[in-house]
């Protein structure tokens, strides 16, 4: 019987052009500064990720930020990039057996049940928060009236100072 490992997952969600990839890059860099192996998964709901303009540019930004493993999914296609010095057959086989990063940053997949950081550009995005589960924090481009809420609300600048605490929230104790 296999022992299930706790996978620390932190989602970054928001509408198109809300800053998800930029926030994911910052989380990757912060995770690496904390000594973590960080992997990312990007959901590309618009096209299949076969060309840079169709989602790979964002996962490339994840890779350039230092993610050890990046993936982009869209239209039934999955593209995976794993940075390693060299690959042996045993290394590739081990890959198929189990991934074991310290942190997985997921960009997109709004309906998934994992802890979420939600980006809101303005009042036109407020409906998004009502649709989501497991919201841990909302990050806004401008001051918004959200009413009573069970999660903290940060400006973009405030969120930058909270990146390590967002990560620590999902790590096992």
Explain what this protein looks like in three dimensions.
- With 173 residues, the protein is an alpha/beta fold.
- The protein has a single domain, classed as Rossmann fold.
- The chain is built from 6 helices and 8 strands.
- Strands 4-3-2-5-1-6-7-8 form an 8-stranded mixed β-sheet.
- The longest helix is centred in the N-terminal third of the chain and has 14 residues.
- The chain is globular, with a radius of gyration of 16 Å.
- The N terminus is likely disordered.
- InterPro entries: MGD_biosynthesis_adapter (IPR052539), MobB_dom (IPR004435), P-loop_NTPase (IPR027417).
- This is Molybdopterin-guanine dinucleotide biosynthesis protein B.
- One of its GO terms (molecular function) is GTP binding.
- Pfam families: MobB.
Under the CATH scheme, the architecture is 3-Layer(aba) Sandwich
Class by alpha and beta content: alpha/beta
As a percent range, the share of helical residues equals: 25-40%
Strand order of the largest sheet: 4-3-2-5-1-6-7-8
Taken in chain order, the helices and strands follow as: EHEHEEHEEHEEHH
What is the fold named in CATH at topology level? Rossmann fold
- How many DSSP-defined strands? 8
Catalogue the unreliable spans.
1-5
Mean pLDDT: 80
Give the DSSP E fraction (strand runs of 2 or more residues): 15-25%
Q: What is the 3D shape? A: globular
Radius of gyration: 16 Å
What's the CATH C level? Alpha Beta
Number of continuous helical runs: 6
Q: State the separation between the terminal residues, measured CA to CA.
A: 24 Å
Main sheet overview: 8 strands, mixed
Considering the protein shown, what is the CATH homologous superfamily?
Answer: P-loop containing nucleotide triphosphate hydrolases
Q: What number of domains?
A: 1
Domain Molybdopterin-guanine dinucleotide biosynthesis protein B (MobB): 9-141
Biased composition (Basic and acidic residues): 54-63
Region (Disordered): 43-63
Protein name: Molybdopterin-guanine dinucleotide biosynthesis protein B
